[in-house]
Amino acid sequence: MLATPGTLPPPAQDARWAYETKQDGQRVMVYLPGDGTLLLRARSGEDITAAYPELGPLAATLGDTPAILDGEVLALDAEGRADFQALQNRMGLAHTPALASHRAARTPVHLVLFDVPYLAGPRMTTPYTRRRELLAGLGLNGPRWSVPGAVVGHGAEALRMTREHGLEGVVCKRLDSVYEPGIRSRSWIKIRNTRSVDVIVGGWLPGKGRLSGLPGAVLVGRRAGGRLVYAGRVGTGWSEDERTELAALLAASASERCPFDPVPRIPGARWVLPRLVGEVGFSTRTRAGLLRQPSWLRLRPDLTPEESAADLPEDL
């Protein structure tokens, strides 16, 4: 079940919603069959259990009670806040367990668990409030995993608190909502404190001067009716190492064909296959739908273009 980007519910409906801190990590489904084993699956369905060996002891926490838990893997900074860049060093290592174990010693992860669609039987039609009660009753607070709190009502205050503490935002969840597997539902609404969007990279412009040989800017788009519509160029937000890494990814995706429809007039543009997803911060949109003052926030290797929320708003 996925959250839909949006805004806080109207004040008159505030008490019908719970508010949880929006996590900034890799979404996982945790399968505990009750036989002492553990299986972690990414949103793509890939088995990523071996990428996070430090979560192995979770397998024994519920004894012989079978369960499926929904959660997110985080890498935490010194202040206990999620650091997605640090997590990127842990992702993609499911097929290299030795390297995963080595990095686990340097950058251990923490698993937050926020739903239980299965507990000794399906719970998907059980209301959110009851699922949260069941989850809280499991006592899943260990050295590398926990169940974060949720508040009912007071959405504006919850969002303000996350902003003041430098957190990503909140997820609003309707109290009577059922669990909808694989669906981006309006029963869950995500709100980021920074105004940001998912974008799909469709091209780039070569850098100049000290950036010679590197991308000076990437050309990004958003989906609309089966097309990739140009949304602007992004030229800031990378460290030197990140820009070098991006250059390699762009080279591996090179294409002779422009993926945008309609084709924008951009002299010197280099096109790529539209398979890289990024997150971009911005101030506002122009009337044409282009992002104003965009800045690169992060690459999203955990998302395919189809899984991302890189869709144009319906009012554009």
UniProtKB/TrEMBL annotation:
Pfam families: DNA_ligase_A_C, DNA_ligase_A_M
Gene Ontology terms describing biological process: DNA recombination; DNA repair
Signal peptide: none
Alphabetized Gene3D superfamilies for the sequence: 3.30.1490.70, DNA ligase/mRNA capping enzyme, Nucleic acid-binding proteins
Keyword field contains Ligase: yes
Keyword Lyase set for record: no
EC top class, as a word: ligase
SUPFAM superfamilies reported in the protein's UniProt record: DNA ligase/mRNA capping enzyme, catalytic domain, Nucleic acid-binding proteins
GO MF annotations in UniProt: ATP binding; DNA ligase (ATP) activity
PROSITE patterns for this protein: DNA_LIGASE_A3
Alphabetical keyword list: Ligase
Enzyme Commission number, as recorded: 6.5.1.1
Segments forming domain ATP-dependent DNA ligase family profile: 102-224
UniProt cross-references to InterPro entries, sorted A to Z: ATP-dep_DNA_ligase, DNA_ligase_ATP-dep_C, DNA_ligase_ATP-dep_cent, NA-bd_OB-fold
Catalyzed reactions per annotation: ATP + (deoxyribonucleotide)n-3'-hydroxyl + 5'-phospho-(deoxyribonucleotide)m = (deoxyribonucleotide)n+m + AMP + diphosphate
Source organism superkingdom: Bacteria
PANTHER family: DNA LIGASE 1, DNA LIGASE 1/3 FAMILY MEMBER
Family, similarity comment: Belongs to the ATP-dependent DNA ligase family.
Protein name: DNA ligase (ATP)
Organism encoding this protein: Streptomyces bauhiniae
